[in-house]
Amino acid sequence: MKIVVCIKQVPDTNEVKLDPKTNRLIRDGVPSIINHDDKSGIEAALQLREKVGGTVTVVCMGPPQADVALREALAMGCDDAYLLSAREFGGSDTCATAIIISTALKKIGYDLVITGRQAIDGDTAQVGPQIAENLGIPQISYAEEIEPNGDVLTVRRQYEDRHHMIDIKTPCLLTALQELAEPRYMHAGGIIDAYDKDITVWGFDDLKDGLNPDHIGLNGSPTKVVTSFGKMAKGAGTKLDVSPDEAVAAIIAKMEERHII
Amino acid sequence: MDFKLSKTHLLQQEMYRRFAENEVKPLAEEMDETEVYSMELLAKMHKYGLMGIPYSKEYGGVGGDYLSYALCMEEVSKMDGSTGITISVHTSLCCSCIDSFGTEEQKQKFLRPLIDGSKTGCYGLTEPNAGSDAAGQQTQAVYDEATDEYIINGGKIFTTNSGFADTCVVFALTDKTAGTRGISAFVVPLKDDDGNRTPGVTVSDNIKRMGIRAASNCEVSYENVRVPAANRLGKEGQGFKIAMKALDGGRIGIAAQSVGLAQGALNEAVEYVKERKQFGRPIAAFQTTQFKLADMQTKIDAARLLTWRAACIKDAGENYGPAAAMAKLFASDVANQVCREAVQLMGGYGYCREYPVERALRDAKITEIYEGTSEVMKMVISGSMKLK
């Protein structure tokens, strides 16, 4: 089985802070990590390879610095890696990102595509499903368990108050939850091997046959971020320990006082 | 001159750090209290390659270098000195003797299982009456021509890892009249593949110690232990040279362990002084605290650079003995100073067993003693200065 895992390099949100003046993330000096859900996706892919054989390819779109995220994936045991990196890709929203990644996936080939559910820096959970739509393959999001069963995969999908057990035939796409698999550490020797391997870097020219320049990058992105801001800290509320009637009267009085009603 | 780590080293450092924080740190306090090393942790260290870093992939090792090994030693020792010495004795004492002096057949037979994760090693040089005077060995190995075996008799002390190790490199006299040239080195299985103790080998309980209490450190006695002649490393009489060469490399590991103990204690102290308020403000706001921390970090950095330099000289295949001795001499002193100051900064809390700096201070003392005392380091360094 040819498994392709799509990963994103994100700032470690445990260490990230918001600039109070500009409301932008302060990325300077913040370590970058593989997005947690994506890393679980890598682990699930490696476990699947151990069960059914095949290869695990890892794909990342990002700046040249994302190389280290791919090396980490190789050191965990992935077979090969692709970095999609070009000036033209910069500023892409989820829609444009999914177009670029699915163009690359068509070229790489796949039986199973695994993405993380969502990235901790954007939290949209859109890229995985959009890739599946672009490729025209079935998808199961929120996968928390994958079991190979003959020519199908039996996937347990998390829901708010239940879970679904779904059989799916390949080729298909799954989006992985962090609970899907506890990622292994890199192997010390795997790190040495990872730096001996070549990572394929694809820029715009390598993918241009499948890409419309008007649909990628900042200008090709339908989503525009108007502004971003941190959560306002709320002060402690007033607590009244009174009867319901008195409570209603107190609330109405407060609303009148503030000209809400 | 470039003081930057390579990308490979940086990623290894990151991996060792994550492993130490997630796997070693949660167990360190309990292992110290119970004086028992976790076999689950040991198995994980084997699994992820921490027990075979500077050895060739040809034999199942990681294919790293001594600098990689030093980075690992620092990261694990930040969390636990006992884990540092467990890795160090296996790697730079036991395995290095076989790697440097073993034949191809011996490497396949003895080194491979030690670095591919199947077995753990130890090193038997120190005896009750032969410490710094390592040449004063009393353990004997007598050759039995009829069976082509050596028969070993004697006792070793402070053999780290011996409580659970499978393999020991043992030094013994093959010629009592030849001084240091009468010592030979043998690979002695302490157990068979099923875990049964080798006949004639007895391992004591863990010796009660001040620090690195989780490490297994026992007396091992050898009574008519028969070892095939094929297990002798090098020629008869080469043992002392083999032992000293291993210790030269081991000292880089101990220097790195010292740096780790110091940096780990300093990191704890830094977190503490930012939180701890006295006289109305965090004690980190007092210049006396800031200056003390500045001194501590400067000393640690100096010790780290000496350690990395020794590792790089070894990796370059040059004479690293004096550099390794300087690194160990200085770093072990820094570890003791910094851990003591960390306890001082944390006051009564730092003295409590609940806080890891108390353990670090107890663990640090041994770095000035084992794998050559500070006094022996000065002998090695001054010996290289052409004073006579």
From TrEMBL, chain A:
GO molecular function: electron transfer activity
Domain (Electron transfer flavoprotein alpha/beta-subunit N-terminal): residue spans on this chain: 22-211
Gene3D superfamilies recorded: HUPs
PANTHER family, sorted: ELECTRON TRANSFER FLAVOPROTEIN BETA-SUBUNIT, PROTEIN FIXA
Protein name (database record): Electron transfer flavoprotein small subunit
Lineage of the organism: Bacteria, Bacillati, Bacillota, Clostridia, Peptostreptococcales
From TrEMBL, chain B:
Protein family according to the UniProt entry: Belongs to the acyl-CoA dehydrogenase family.
InterPro entries: Acyl-CoA_DH_CS (IPR006089), Acyl-CoA_Oxase/DH_mid-dom (IPR006091), Acyl-CoA_Oxase/DH_mid-dom_sf (IPR046373), AcylCo_DH-like_C (IPR036250), AcylCo_DH/oxidase_C (IPR009075), AcylCoA_DH/ox_N (IPR013786), AcylCoA_DH/ox_N_sf (IPR037069), AcylCoA_DH/oxidase_NM_dom_sf (IPR009100)
Residues of the Acyl-CoA oxidase/dehydrogenase middle domain: 122-225
GO molecular function terms noted in the UniProt entry: acyl-CoA dehydrogenase activity; flavin adenine dinucleotide binding
Every Acyl-CoA dehydrogenase/oxidase C-terminal domain range: 237-382
Chain segments annotated as transmembrane: none
PROSITE patterns named among the record's database cross-references: ACYL_COA_DH_1, ACYL_COA_DH_2
Cofactor requirements of the protein: FAD
UniProt KW keywords: FAD, Flavoprotein, Oxidoreductase
PANTHER family in UniProt: ACYL-COA DEHYDROGENASE, ISOVALERYL-COA DEHYDROGENASE, MITOCHONDRIAL-RELATED
Name under which the protein is recorded: Acyl-CoA dehydrogenase family protein
Superkingdom of origin organism: Bacteria
Domain Acyl-CoA dehydrogenase/oxidase N-terminal: 7-117
